[in-house]
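Before we proceed, please read the two lines closing this message. Report back on whether the structure tokens fit the sequence:
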Amino acid sequence: MLNRKLFKLLNKSNYMHVFNKKKERVIKTIALGSGKGGVGKSSLTVLLAHVLRRFSLKVGIIDADLYGPSLSLMLPPEIPLKVSEAGRIIPALSQGIKVVSLSHFTQGREAMMVRAPIANATIKKFVEDVDWGDVEVVLIDLPPGTGDIQLTLMQMVSLTGAVVITTPSKASIIDVKKSIEMFQRMNVPILGLIENMSYFEDRLTHLRQYPFGQGRGKKLAEEFAVNFLGMVPLDEEICDSLDEGSSIFENRNPGAISEILEEIGIEIRSKICDDRGVISKIEKIFHNDEFLELSCGGNSYRYKFSEIQKRCPCARCKGEGVVDEKVVAIEIRKMGNYAISVHFSSGCSQGIYTWQHLENYSSSALV
């Protein structure tokens, strides 16, 4: 039976295409698909949303897995989803991420037993009639398979790209191939492939075990000439943080897990977020107790550390709002070719900064 609140919503038709290219501000849209259930696609959607937020991007999520919506567990709403009198959806807000999910209508208590026409109408509502505000990137968590919901989305939205999720198991690879072929036939650029649950690493011996096999995700990427974004391990910290509805980056010390996810995030960001089409590489880094100097494309800028921390996207820095002008860097780590991570003397180490992000504030930060 269709949830009454949802039924009432679907009967209002005040559609305004939020991804309309005629708008001055175009929202980037990334579909995450697998063709296979149980590969951790929803979990990686949430983790990537947290990562992209660390790049100071404003992120939203559409939970298109209508028959198994789970995002309200991993992203418990601090501000609940609302529907305006005109029928427009105001997304729920969790940890700075805006979310639209059927789980906000059912609270996980009702089975969503709906036929394809209603499912497609729901997806249409989620795509066309949501007030995203200042969101810059929307991640779309697709359901398993290559059916009506996927086709409806790809026909309605000019996707910026897709990220394919698989595990190393043979059963997963078979179905993920179909998902890749679907994106290719629908002319959706594939940003890359992530192999999830790649291995388990013993915390004492640091030896890796490969319960689902080894290397099949990378071979699959090579077979279809798709960028291989990386391997995400089976890890208790990831599982616990998602089950608790918290960010693994801000509440824990994930170590290597953090670096793996950040590298994947950097690759995705480098493909979608530079208006010039190519994200600039950071060539040289120099710093002392007073300033940070970056060189990129023949240009060099100096930044006070206090000015950099003022741009930190983490909840702690945004909440405090005041930065010590004498703050310095304890450690500066280069994140691939495109970004840096700074561990400040204030204790914050959550922010990731690309050249473009810092360049936007060069007028205030240039020494």
